[in-house]
User: Fold this.
Amino acid sequence: MLFLVTIAAVLSTFLGGLFAFKFRDKLHLVLGFSAGAVIGVAFFDLLPEALELSSGKYEIGFVTTVVAGGFILYMILDRLISLHSHHEDHCGNENHRGVLGAGSLSIHSFLDGLAIGLSFKVSVSVGVVVALAVLAHDFSDGINTIGLILKNGGSKKKAFLWLAVDALAPVFGVITSLLLSIEQESLGLILAIFCGFFFYIGASDLLPESHHNHPTHWTTLLSILGIVFIYAVIHFAAF
Assistant:
């Protein structure tokens, strides 16, 4: 069962990325959906999981502070890269921002695999619920990875390489879960940090770019659909 779920996670991410490639000429719409999906994952998946996993040891206020810390940390990293050779090396700077975002998504995918493996250690039923939620937004992760690289001036080849990294990351997460035993409260705080990352990526990077030089009504609609899609999938995966 765990093996099949891992393969499904890889395929789901690749399918999302191929979807983004196919509709590259409509990238602003893909980015609009991606922005909503990233924000939706932060609100409806990462934040609830972080609070639940950390509840036995940490107060809600502390966990949300960690979320804010993740947001601030990502903002600082993003601004430092943006300030680096801002005028002389603009394209290179954009590529670095894309790599930063894609790298964050890949690490999150690694944690997805880790969460799947650890949840199956608890019970098969818990593992299946977690796996369904992960599979649901792995498709969006594929879209988001391609969107971040292409939006920031990366080549199609570079985008595909990062898609492969993101798609294979859950495999290493699952393998790691079989070798290590991580305290669930610690995993909760890790998810809280990435929740902050995703709030920044969605609201401060993808969302403004999706509206840039494009009609805002369609991109706004796609952003709302992205949020609703993630909410619906995670909601139904819980039952």
The radius of gyration is 17 Å. Helices lie at 2-22, 27-54, 60-83, 90-122, 124-151, 156-179, 184-211, 216-237.
